[in-house]
Amino acid sequence: MINCKIADIAEKIISFDDWKTSHEQALALIPNTEETILDLIGCANKIRQRFKVQPVFRCGIVNAKSGRCAENCAFCAQSAHHRSAVDIYGLRSADELVDEGLRLAAAGATHYGIVTSGTALNESEIDTVCRVAERLRAGSGLHLCASLGLLSDSAARKLKAAGIDRYHHNLETARSYFDQICTTHSYDEMIATIRTARAAGLEVCSGGIFGMGESWPQRVELAFQLRELEVDSVPVNFLNPIPGTRMEGRSPLPPLEALACIALFRFIHPHRDITVCGGRELTLKDFQSWVFLAGANGLMVGNYLTTRGRGIETDLEMIAALGLTVS
Known about the structure:
TIM Barrel
């Protein structure tokens, strides 16, 4: 028999467009058995079907500037504080970034994210990203995203004017756990960048990484912080413990626990896009198709920043096999 508490909250979300899961209710949703995880997933799927039916959107990214980042994020292979084996290069040319966007679009991506290593870009680098956006806006149907670190008001306005639709800036984890992950910039600096992007008229994409040692209540804390910031899209990542980083010894989350993270976020963000991103192949393995049953409505496709993903065609075949559509 389905858990009545989970089913009751889901029914309220489905029946009343403006109904919001409270913090107390979210804590009560935290699963403690396999049976409650499956109940949570099943109800999250009903919420997705109510608010985010189809089509599935696909986001492809490019590592536009790699390595030598001054920040000490515990999970990141591109941090200069780690000894991971990553390529190191400055901002790629506008031609290269345009070509990569067109390649991803031809392969089936609907969104294209330009991602750079480092605390922030300088003015010249921002101008290069703007030229890329202008060219892709004129020559493709891609939704354009940028993830360029901390953001000034002037840079945000330039990006918006050039045709960037959405700014991506993960909070990574809960405020109460952030000092275990990074100490070279503050949580408030990240929130300020999200608000700066929003003030410039950009949509905001912000989420986190699960499996870094955070507790379930801290996962709830992150979800509510994102809801308070009214982000438009929530990327869900799972730790890929890369050799040379401080997280290299951690084991991936069990697949059902990872799916429960997605489901819990669907309960707290019923109207938002939830995209499953980095670490899904390693963590979910044969359960990757379950991300939609758990409440997600988007995938990051292709390769990631420093690790390989699986073929976009494979993901398109998976989506079709589920009876879902692509736009």
